[in-house]
């Protein structure tokens, strides 16, 4: 008799629980599913925006003859042409041929798109054209630097490949055989 008193209420409680689950699914199952899908969409879009932020790690200022000048964010490894495109493209009177559109952008860089016939004193290609970029130069270019032979040129390339490039020109002194005296001979001829 004790067993029946215990089993009977347990069976009724189980029946009520099963009925409640079935009833809630049939009467407002769509709300439960709607709430679930909204939550999962939010989580997905939140995670997506996090990944977008981490990918867009370069901040550059694009100005001059572009449609939407200002500060923009780009993916690592982006080129000047990508920055111009993200700034709304060029205006009709832009001298786009004066820019090296294939050049990789660096964080904090200012990209000025001049007008046709305009000479801009701060334009980077004019100021950097005679400089050797130690982050992109090949062995032959590096050999033109005073005091840099083939072994040091190869060491420069190996260092930038292993360390993700040079952050500032002074970082070249981290290479064996290039100390302050050697750096002073080449510092006016290099850039990053």
Keywords:
Ubiquitin-like (UB roll), mainly alpha, elongated, 192 residues, DNA polymerase, domain 1
General description of the model:
The protein is mainly alpha-helical and 192 residues long. The protein folds into three domains: 45 residues, no CATH class; 66 residues, Ubiquitin-like (UB roll); 60 residues, Orthogonal Bundle (DNA polymerase, domain 1). The protein has six helices and five strands; from the N terminus they run αββαβαβαααβ. Strands 2-1-3 form a three-stranded mixed beta sheet, with helices on one face. A two-stranded parallel ribbon has the order 4-5. Strand 1 and strand 2 form a beta hairpin. The longest helix is centred in the first third of the chain and has 54 residues. It is elongated, with a radius of gyration of 31 Å. The N and C termini lie far apart (90 Å). About 19% of the residues have low confidence.
Describe the SSE topology:
Layout: H1 2-55, E1 58-64, E2 70-74, H2 80-86, E3 110-113, H3 124-128, E4 132-133, H4 139-142, H5 150-163, H6 180-186, E5 190-191
Parallel strand pairs: 1-3, 4-5
Antiparallel strand pairs: 1-2
**Helix percentage:** 40-55%
* Rg result: 31 Å
User: Strand order across the biggest sheet?
Assistant: 2-1-3
Second rung of CATH, namely the architecture of the largest domain: Roll
Organism: Eshraghiella crossota CAG:259
Domain Helix-hairpin-helix DNA-binding motif class: 140-159, 170-189
Pfam family, one: SLBB
GO biological process, one term: DNA repair
């Amino acid at each position: 008799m004790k067993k029946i008193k215990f089993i009977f209420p347990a069976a009724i409680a189980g029946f009520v629980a099963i009925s409640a689950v079935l009833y809630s699914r049939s009467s407002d199952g769509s709300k439960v599913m709607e709430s679930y899908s909204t939550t999962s969409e939010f989580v997905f879009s939140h995670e997506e925006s996090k990944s977008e932020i981490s990918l867009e790690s370069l901040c550059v200022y694009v100005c001059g003859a572009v449609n939407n000048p200002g500060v923009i964010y780009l993916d690592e490894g982006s080129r000047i042409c990508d920055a111009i495109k993200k700034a709304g493209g060029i205006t009709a009177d832009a001298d786009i041929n004066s820019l090296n559109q294939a050049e990789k952008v660096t964080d904090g860089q200012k990209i000025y798109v001049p007008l046709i016939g305009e000479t801009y004193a701060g334009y980077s290609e004019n100021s950097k054209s005679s400089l050797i970029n130690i982050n992109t130069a090949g062995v032959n270019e590096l050999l033109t630097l005073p005091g840099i032979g083939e072994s040091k040129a190869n060491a420069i390339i190996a260092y930038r490949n292993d360390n993700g490039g040079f952050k500032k020109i002074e970082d070249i002194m981290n290479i064996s055989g290039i100390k302050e005296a050697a750096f002073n001979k080449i510092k006016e001829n290099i850039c990053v």
